[in-house]
């Protein structure tokens, strides 16, 4: 039995917001999940649309100090990829930094947020929110204007909505986060880099990316460095794209 608390909520505004509010109630690694998230948050200030009963909304609570917290989203993408392979036999690719694609469409989104806690807010932690599209029909993605989104069921996986959310939440917590954290907490992303690169769909492809000061750049993605940055060869040299507020386009449908 797991020693990490995995808390189920019948409904929640945002599991990330809940995890931040209840952060100190969890041990070094814990999690909260629901299949009905009414105010989900996405990356870059976007929202994450609810699909009541047909998707998993999960947040890992990490209270362990991390050597390289900015690379947690990349570790998380490997964690989800592994557990989806275990459960469904699917081979997802990673769109840098942390989206999972199946047959060229987005199946998982990840949003990590830092947390300050304690009486003087001096404690530092991180929550890692993961949305997994389990069994939404095509009409859901059409109505939500998400042409690049898909669900495991739409891609042919046999989804059991009664059992899979709990199975995935527990497996992610124990095998996706707790176990790799023994290495990741001390050594950061470097030990996971080769595995990540093998799954990364961007490498060798033309990408465009947002520059931190505004505008866009483009070139060929050639590597992911030990700090988790995407290295892009451009006309004027090399750019190292950070895992922060940037996005990489031009990948959907490319595989
Ligand atoms: C993205 O924009 O791709 C990231 C989406 C992250 C969504 C998940 S669902 C569980 C957790 N709770 C939230 O409010 N957001 C994350």
Oligomer: single chain
Q: What is the CATH topology assignment of the largest domain?
A: BirA Bifunctional Protein, domain 2
How many β-strand runs? Answer: 14
Cα gyration radius (Å): 18 Å
Percentage of residues assigned to helices: 10-25%
CATH homology-level superfamily of the largest domain? Bira Bifunctional Protein, Domain 2
Q: How many domain units?
A: 2
Biggest sheet strand line-up: 1-2-5-9-8-7-6
Bound molecules: biotin
Number of helices: 5
What percent of residues are in strands?
25-35%
Query: Globular, elongated, flat, extended or rod-shaped: what is the shape?
Result: globular
- Supply the CATH architecture of the largest domain: 2-Layer Sandwich
The string of secondary-structure elements, in order, is EHEEEEHEEEEHHHEEEEE
Class by alpha and beta content: alpha+beta
InterPro entries: aa-tRNA-synth_II/BPL/LPL (IPR045864), Biotin_CoA_COase_ligase (IPR004408), BPL_C (IPR003142), BPL_LPL_catalytic (IPR004143), Transcriptional_repressor_C (IPR008988)
Pfam families: BPL_C (PF02237), BPL_LplA_LipB (PF03099)
Protein name: biotin--[biotin carboxyl-carrier protein] ligase
EC number: 6.3.4.15
């Amino acid at each position: 039995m797991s020693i990490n608390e995995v808390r189920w909520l019948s409904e929640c505004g945002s599991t990330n917001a809940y995890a931040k509010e209840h952060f100190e109630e969890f041990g070094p690694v814990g999690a909260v999940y629901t299949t009905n998230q009414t105010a989900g948050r996405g990356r870059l200030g976007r929202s994450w649309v609810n699909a009541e009963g047909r998707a998993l909304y999960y947040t890992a609570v990490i209270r362990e100090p991390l050597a390289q917290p900015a690379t947690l989203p990349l570790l998380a993408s490997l964690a989800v990829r592994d557990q989806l392979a275990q459960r469904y036999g699917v081979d997802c690719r990673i769109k840098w930094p942390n989206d999972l694609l199946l047959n060229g469409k987005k199946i998982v989104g990840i949003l990590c947020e830092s947390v300050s806690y304690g009486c003087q807010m001096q404690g530092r932690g991180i929550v890692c929110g993961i949305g997994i599209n389990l069994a939404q029909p095509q009409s859901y993605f059409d109505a939500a204007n998400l042409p690049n989104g898909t669900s495991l069921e739409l891609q042919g996986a046999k989804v059991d909505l009664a059992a899979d959310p709990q199975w995935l939440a527990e497996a992610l917590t124990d095998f996706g986060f707790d176990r790799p954290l023994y290495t990741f907490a001390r050594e950061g992303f470097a030990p996971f880099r080769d595995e990540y690169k093998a799954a990364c769909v961007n490498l060798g492809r033309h990408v465009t990316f947002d520059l931190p000061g505004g505008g866009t750049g483009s070139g060929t993605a050639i590597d992911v460095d030990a700090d988790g940055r995407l290295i892009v060869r451009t006309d004027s040299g090399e750019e190292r794209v950070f895992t922060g507020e940037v996005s990489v386009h031009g990948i959907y449908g490319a595989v």
